[in-house]
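Quarterly update from the structural biology core.
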Amino acid sequence: MIQLKEIDKYIESRFQRIFLLKGIHLEIKEGEFLTLMGPSGAGKSTLLNILGLLDEDYAGDYFFGEKNIRSMKERERSNLHKSEFGYIFQAYHLIDELTVYENIETPLLYRKVPSSERKSIIAELLDRFNMVAKKDLFPAQLSGGQQQLVGIARAIAGRPRVLLADEPTGNLHSAQAKEIMEVFQELHREGTTIIQASHARENAEYGTRLINLLDGKIESDEKI
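Predicted structure, tokenized:
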């Protein structure tokens, strides 16, 4: 499904080239639940951003299916980004001025999903995450765990094939973190490909594969 070949990511300083990622080879099959682990600065978020088409400034080749991302036109890349990927962030990134309902609706508006279909999708997600009674609340009125659930609902509203999560439980206490990881496990069972960056080994245990990064390189790649 996804194949990275000889991916390098670096920044040029005055005297030297500083590598954030170096010589990354990675193949991800559809339906995997993969965790990127490593210390701060290892390259987890950098790699996740490249995988999620959020960063195009790198050397090497990225194949999504048969398509080489590097040779795609910008509009084609943008359509792929919108149609195939969902994103979950540590800081939630909800829109403060919008209600729970409106936050979940946002990606569906971008995709021009018809109104009746939008209502059906959002109703199903609100029910799934026990948020029906909170649909008219604003993010500031929710707990961290509830905000992250809204973030997940928004990310999966468009039924993406690939879900990317950057430290999704980093701001949550253990009970909330467990709830979020069980949601991921359920989505994985339904066929979603999940790629998460995490410091927490216990989060990795919910997945099927663990990749350890160190100094921008893959140090180990193991099945769980």
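Strands lie at 2-12, 17-28, 33-37, 59-64, 67-68, 85-89, 162-166, 193-197, 209-214, 217-223.
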